[in-house]
């Protein structure tokens, strides 16, 4: 698991950071805008099967904060082998000099194969961390990690760990 943590520890730490830390308020020039990132990544697990190969992920993070500087985080992703997900969750922005760190969590709709419907693995959760660095006025390079699973609610857990990198733009 990421940073040597168990999945439960990672989800717990992410949740605590979102709920208990202040976060960084959005600059007033960005209110009403979104970060849109397009990333490519790979599942670090060596299992074979749907969702275990390369991923293309599009993520949107709002600059309009909810209470306690929590932000909405939306994402969709597809893998080369036909798996896919869509999620709407929450996150929080933290700035460390020019680095921006965003832990996020949310429920996800997931399918091992987009060509057929299987309700057994439909409900999952996506937890992760994105780190970005500005490379222009409205662009950033972004990298991070996310985990998709169902917290062992059923035996049909996605169990995916994706490390990804890409470009993020402010719109």
Features:
single chain; 1 helix; 171 residues
Describe this structure in words.
By secondary structure, this protein is mainly beta. The chain has a single domain, classed as Porin (Beta Barrel). It contains one helix and nine strands; from the N terminus they run αβββββββββ. An eight-stranded antiparallel β-barrel has the order 1-2-3-4-6-7-8-9. A hairpin with a 7-residue loop joins strand 2 and strand 3. The protein is globular.
Summary of the model, kept short:
With 171 residues, the protein is mainly β. It has one helix at 7-20; strands at residues 34-43, 55-62, 70-79, 84-92, 94-96, 99-111, 123-134, 139-149, 160-170.
N/C terminus separation: 33 Å
The percentage helix is under 10%
List low-confidence stretches: none
Strand residues, percent:
over 45%
Tell me what the CATH architecture is: Beta Barrel
* Number of domains as seen in the coordinates: 1
Secondary structure layout plus pairing:
Layout: H1 7-20, E1 34-43, E2 55-62, E3 70-79, E4 84-92, E5 94-96, E6 99-111, E7 123-134, E8 139-149, E9 160-170
Antiparallel strand pairs: 1-2, 1-9, 2-3, 3-4, 4-6, 5-6, 6-7, 7-8, 8-9
